[in-house]
């Protein structure tokens, strides 16, 4: 790591500015940051604090701040609730499917579209298009397509003598939901991978080919390792999205049938806004927050450590 | 200035007449010439009400040039969610549709709903007591009814005939037999919207009413205890029905008013019956083709050995409540909407049922007449459970019953789950 220390030293070379000028710079920085900090405190930090606070109360959400303090009862109730435990399981299933099916699929499409082929730009655009649609429109669209009675999916598949109840059957609802998620998001991940692939110098691939590497070996030992940072960030985005998954489920199934496709965010909406138990819903949101935070911190520290050198994980420059 | 004052006075006078007179003077004293906008939220998304209500608003605006009515019309589930969200932020629309009961009571306790007792004292005697009861608490009135009805079975006469059923079932066991006959004839017996949970809760509610009785349902909410043999028995009967697999294909994912939902399935003649409220014929015609002459109505059958009377009716209406901070014109509009000559138009069109005394003659549709007669002769009345109970308990009833119908919960677990949530509220 000795080579790294060269950088900071080089910066330190010019004489430090006089104290007055340095203070002036701090004032400028503070002034520029102030609007953003105020907004951040008001719209992000304050609601988080209020949610954490109200999660300790029995509260129907009406009138001022909650008063009926019940300690951690909301959390004990939450973790003994079958539905919430099911939500966590759905999260695990969807994350696993995303990482092991959706992302490899996106990667494969990206590699394919990196080749020189006719109409490459059109394919890229078409595959990326679903990502631009709003989640609600996607939801409405697929609830029509996947409708068991008159939906397009069953009309087409019935030609081959195959039919499914899609979103109406507790056993198939999660895979169907994942299908819609993939349709909507594989284009986005494909785009990230394409960008990552374009950053890999052609010389490396060429060199491997000259050394006699097969296409698979070139991919496995040259392209894939060099795509590492890109893959790690796309896994990260995918997991965070799944933890917060709401719109699509709300429109497609509302969490049903029999909670078979419910996610934490849907459960939270249900208790907070349909049943007026805001304290309990706040407890769910706190768990979601902690889960996202813990995942983000651990993932960034452990997995994305090298990719983020000098950003969030530099530990004050000491590394 | 002078001219606008005259205009206002004239407008208020006209509005006063519309609201069966009386309050014009009181209005005249504080009437300021400023423009007033009334936010009005309701959920009549289907014809004929959709355009009728719109017409009433336009007429009212024409008579009161300083009033602008901005209507927000949402579908049932979206409406409930949006109203809860805004009321939790400490506001309420100036005018909003309500079912009364526990949900309205919670909004009243939060200080969001105006006590309109004195404003409407002059028109109160015009309403039937059954229609009014859901909006009155401790002798105070918080809303006026626009509709009142009952839930019952709407059936397709043609399909019943095909299955060889000559008359609608009067008992629960006969009902189950008919379901089997329909299935044997290759007809889907019942249309149900399983994605939305409120249509399913009607079955459990009616069975609980027939088996345990009205008083038991009331008492359960007081004691926070639904863990009684009678409620379990209601669940078992519903399970017996669900085990016959009487519902349309993919019903667990079906909505109510959507193009392939419960109402459309029924309205297109793809299922023989549905358990639904007085608005069912309108929605069937709106979402599907509508059955016309083939549509019939029969009350929920009696359950043998049950404690409840077969004459007890389950249902609800709809009313209009006024937000605490609403301008006085909001109350005037509510009175205008429910005045005899205005409201009876909606009754004639078959959109709502009579809420005013002497309005019965305006009912023209034979099926709705039957509903009105059943209502008039009801031995007891139970409001929708998801409105009568506090929201958390009501939604849990919906939820648990959906799980029971979906086959993931037993009747005992349903009673247990509802009890647990009821206790968490208490």
From TrEMBL, chain A:
It holds the Pfam family BPD_transp_1. Its main location: membrane. The chain crosses the membrane at residues 31-53, 88-113, 125-146, 173-194, 233-252, 278-299. GO terms for cellular component: plasma membrane. It comes from the Bacteria. GO terms for biological process: transmembrane transport. The keyword Magnesium does not apply. InterPro entries: MetI-like, MetI-like_sf, UgpAE/MalFG_permease. Residues 88-299 form the ABC transmembrane type-1 domain. PANTHER family: BLL4140 PROTEIN. This is Sugar ABC transporter permease.
Automatic annotation (TrEMBL), chain B:
InterPro entries: Bact_solute-bd_prot1, SBP. This is Extracellular solute-binding protein. It holds the Pfam family SBP_bac_1. The keyword Oxidoreductase does not apply. SUPFAM superfamilies: Periplasmic binding protein-like II (SSF53850). Keywords: Signal. The lineage of its organism: Bacteria, Bacillati, Actinomycetota, Actinomycetes, Streptosporangiales. Residues 1-20 form the signal peptide.
């Amino acid at each position: 790591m000795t080579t790294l220390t060269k950088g900071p030293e080089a910066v330190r070379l010019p004489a430090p500015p006089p104290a007055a000028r340095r203070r002036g710079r701090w004032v400028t920085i503070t002034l520029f940051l102030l609007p953003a900090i105020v907004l951040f405190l008001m719209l992000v930090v304050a609601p988080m604090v209020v949610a954490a606070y109200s999660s300790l109360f029995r509260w129907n959400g009406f009138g001022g701040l909650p008063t009926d303090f019940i300690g951690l009862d909301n959390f004990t109730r939450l973790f003994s609730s079958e539905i919430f435990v099911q939500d966590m399981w759905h999260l695990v299933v969807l994350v696993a499917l995303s990482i092991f099916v959706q992302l490899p699929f996106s990667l494969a499409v990206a590699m394919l579209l990196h080749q020189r082929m006719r109409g490459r730009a059109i394919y890229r655009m078409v595959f990326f298009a679903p990502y631009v649609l709003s989640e609600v429109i996607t939801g409405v669209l697929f609830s029509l397509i996947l409708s068991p009675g008159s939906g397009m999916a069953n009309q087409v598949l019935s030609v081959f003598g195959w039919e499914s109840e899609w979103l109406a059957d507790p056993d198939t609802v999660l895979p169907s939901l994942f299908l819609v998620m993939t349709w909507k998001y594989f284009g986005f991940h494909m785009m990230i991978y394409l960008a990552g692939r374009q950053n890999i110098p052609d010389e490396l691939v060429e060199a491997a080919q000259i050394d006699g590497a097969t296409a698979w070996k070139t991919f496995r030992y040259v392209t894939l390792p060099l795509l590492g940072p890109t893959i790690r960030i796309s896994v990260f985005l995918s997991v965070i999205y799944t933890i917060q998954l709401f719109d699509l489920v709300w429109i497609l199934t509302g969490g049903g049938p029999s909670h078979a496709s419910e996610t934490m965010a849907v459960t939270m909406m249900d208790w907070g806004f349909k049943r007026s138990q805001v304290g309990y819903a706040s407890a769910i949101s706190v768990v979601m927050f902690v889960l996202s935070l813990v995942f983000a911190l651990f993932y960034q520290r452990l997995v994305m450590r090298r990719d983020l050198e000098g950003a969030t994980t530099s530990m004050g420059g000491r590394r | 200035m002078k001219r606008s004052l005259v205009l206002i006075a004239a407008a208020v006078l006209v509005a006063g007449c519309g609201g069966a007179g009386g309050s014009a003077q009181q209005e005249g004293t504080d009437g300021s010439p400023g423009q007033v906008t009334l936010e009005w939220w309701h959920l009549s998304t289907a014809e004929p009400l959709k355009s009728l209500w719109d017409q009433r608003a336009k007429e009212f605006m024409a008579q009161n040039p300083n009033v602008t009515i901005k209507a927000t019309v949402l579908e049932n589930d979206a409406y409930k969610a949006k109203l809860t969200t805004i009321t939790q932020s400490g506001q309420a629309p100036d005018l909003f549709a309500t079912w009364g009961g526990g949900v309205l009571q919670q909004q009243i306790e939060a200080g969001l709903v105006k006590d309109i007792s004195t404003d409407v004292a002059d028109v109160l005697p015009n309403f039937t007591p059954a229609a009014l009861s859901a909006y009155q608490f401790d002798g105070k009135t918080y809303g006026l009814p626009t509709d009142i009805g009952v839930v019952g079975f709407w059936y397709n006469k043609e399909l019943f005939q095909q299955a060889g059923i000559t008359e609608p079932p009067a008992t629960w066991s006969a009902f189950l037999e008919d379901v089997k006959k329909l299935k044997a004839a290759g007809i889907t017996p019942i249309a149900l919207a399983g994605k939305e949970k409120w249509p399913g809760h009607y079955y459990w509610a009616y069975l609980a009413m027939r088996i345990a009785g009205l008083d038991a349902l009331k008492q359960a909410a007081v004691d926070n205890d639904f863990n009684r043999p009678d409620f379990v028995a209601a669940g078992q009967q519903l399970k017996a029905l669900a085990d016959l697999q009487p519902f349309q294909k993919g019903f667990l994912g079906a909505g109510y008013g959507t193009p392939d939902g419960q109402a459309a399935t029924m309205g297109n003649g793809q299922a023989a019956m549905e358990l639904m409220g007085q608005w069912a014929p309108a929605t069937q015609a709106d979402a599907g083709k509508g059955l016309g002459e083939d549509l019939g109505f029969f009350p929920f059958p009696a359950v043998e050995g049950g404690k409840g009377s077969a004459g007890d009716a389950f249902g609800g209406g709809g009313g209009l409540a006024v937000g605490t901070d609403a301008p006085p014109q909001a109350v005037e509009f509510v009175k205008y909407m429910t005045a005899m000559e205005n409201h009876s138009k909606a009754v004639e069109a078959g959109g709502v049922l009579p809420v005013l005394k002497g309005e019965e003659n305006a009912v023209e549709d034979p099926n709705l007449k039957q509903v009105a007669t059943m209502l008039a002769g009801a031995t007891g009345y139970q409001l929708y459970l998801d409105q009568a109970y506090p929201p958390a308990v009501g939604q849990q009833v919906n939820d648990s019953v959906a799980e029971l119908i979906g086959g993931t919960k037993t009747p005992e677990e349903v009673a247990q789950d509802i009890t647990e949530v009821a206790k968490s509220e208490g």
